Amino acid sequence: MIRIHIFLVFLLLPLTMRSQEDICIGKKYSLYSTVLQEERNYWVHLPDNYEGDTTQRYQVIYLLDGDSFFHSVVGISQTFTTVKGKHLPPSIIVGVLNVDRTRDLTPTASAARRDGKISPGTLPQGGGSESFCRFLTEELRGVIDSSYRTNGQNMLIGHSYSGLFTLNTFLRHTELFDTYLAIDPSLWWDQGKLSQEAASLIEGKNFAGKSLYIGVASKKRTDRVDIHLNKVNHLLQEILPQAENLRFFSKSFPEENHGTVAIPGIYDGIKQLFGK
Amino acid sequence: MIRIHIFLVFLLLPLTMRSQEDICIGKKYSLYSTVLQEERNYWVHLPDNYEGDTTQRYQVIYLLDGDSFFHSVVGISQTFTTVKGKHLPPSIIVGVLNVDRTRDLTPTASAARRDGKISPGTLPQGGGSESFCRFLTEELRGVIDSSYRTNGQNMLIGHSYSGLFTLNTFLRHTELFDTYLAIDPSLWWDQGKLSQEAASLIEGKNFAGKSLYIGVASKKRTDRVDIHLNKVNHLLQEILPQAENLRFFSKSFPEENHGTVAIPGIYDGIKQLFGK
Asked: Which residue among B11, B22, B67 places its CB closest to the CB of A82?
């Protein structure tokens, strides 16, 4: 039996050594959401020194559209910690994967297109953001907070529909996160309803301790009519400057379109939100 | 003996399943360089479908300062392949790690500071870029080309001293790479020697088939005197537009400094070099 044990150790040794040569940035997990009644996947990245210093606790970044942006945001956080000019405290990054973006990320059901018009016979879609928000901040956060050394600081990052979700959460459930980063939020949704409601949602509210960044792709496009930019500008220029005690940042990207703005926007947002 | 084998399979099964849940972006390797007479580390990322389609061959991106930028550039390439608007063909990314940046990345030995002045008693440093270039394009490329399905297209990415190395390689050994991406190259090195030599280095040369991008951090700084920006502007405006048949792109980043420009610069460079 001793000989078998020795044999086992020698058998496993090269496997262990080989696996040390992999460069891994996180792990894949899933949990069953009773709110959404489905299995949901999420990916978790831990800061480099997580195992080394077991007394430190960390901010959690909830990154929507994790399938598209997890690798980039982990990379950006890695560069920010190795290159001069640190702009982000070491963070736990939780990439949340999609099942049905329209259902989960939009605050109201709507049949309207990007140009604000409704084609005859189109059925309303979406409107499930309240349930998704409960999954995110009750079920998923519960698992994250009980599994890792979190410090109670939470950040939400979203682009496009996820940017709309981020802004909607900021406006309606401000208390749920500390830092909000929304890139090119789809404010054209439901004929611009959220931007119309924004003024009344911030009225009388105190945003002390909260930070918001909005990045906007402002490259002119001729291929489609879109009420998006008008709604965003209204929010940026008229509404948000009135939010009391809010740390608010924004940037317009005249050379980026809705798709290409995500990475430069997230990068600039992190830099402005956490910069010195 | 059969029972022991069955026991082994059950013992290893959970390990295998657990390891499948890791999110890995590459592997760490090293090789002994006879040119540099030292062991050199490099990291390799293979495109997602590398094992799935064994007939496809890929461009290789040689990324300098791999320790700082490997994760980010892998992430950017990942986002470019999952989000609308693909801007980069699937590529093998080779991150090259540093041993002595000043020695390896500068083309001449120099005692001059960023302001062009030489403090009394300062000894010249650097000047080893020819040896490092041979390591990179003979020894390392030899290993990469014989280990992976490369297609003969090679790209070089470098920031700061590595940007200087990238530009020097472009000017002196144009044939060695197809695409060059230099971010905020340290043209102040040796009192701006490379930019002084640039005009004669491009004279009479045909750059057909070659592409170059230069990203420049143009945020004004008051904390130090630096001859860098003058040298860069001279190169961008006077010299490079004369390079025959060169595909040349550049961008100035007025809100970024030398440290923060790396990621937005690499992102924009890839977008411009490979965009439609």
From this structure: B67
